[in-house]
Design the sequence.
C-alpha cells in the first residue's frame, strides 16, 4: 500500500494511505497532477498539526466506513472535540471533505 505524508504548518509529518488521502478531491488532484506533491509529500502550511491529525483520522474513517451497510455493520461515531470544530470546518472546506 502506498502512503502519503501530510506536513502541517508546524512541520509535523502525518502519514496516511494514498487511498485515504484520495478521499479529499484537493489532495487527490495534488497527487495526480503535475505538481511536486505527486511524489507523496504534501505541505499544508495553513493547517496546524493537531487539526491535520484529526483530518487524517477522518480520511481513514471515511475510507473505511463510507460504503458500509449500516444495517449489517455497526459504524462508530466520528468524535469531533467542540474546541476544534471551527478549525476542522475550515480545513475540511479547504480539502473538500
Sequence:
Amino acid at each position: 500500500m502506498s502512503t502519503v505524508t501530510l506536513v502541517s504548518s508546524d512541520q509535523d509529518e502525518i502519514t496516511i494511505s494514498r487511498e485515504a488521502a484520495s478521499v479529499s478531491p484537493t489532495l487527490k488532484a495534488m497527487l495526480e497532477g503535475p505538481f511536486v506533491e505527486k511524489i507523496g509529500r504534501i505541505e499544508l502550511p495553513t493547517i496546524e498539526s493537531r487539526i491535520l491529525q484529526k483530518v487524517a483520522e477522518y480520511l481513514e474513517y471515511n475510507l473505511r466506513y463510507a460504503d458500509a451497510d449500516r444495517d449489517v455493520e455497526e459504524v462508530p461515531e466520528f468524535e469531533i472535540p467542540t474546541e476544534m470544530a471551527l478549525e476542522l470546518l475550515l480545513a475540511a472546506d479547504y480539502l473538500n471533505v
Q: What stands out?
A: The CA atoms of residues 43 and 70 lie 35 Å apart. The longest helix spans residues 49-65. DSSP finds four helices and three strands in the chain.
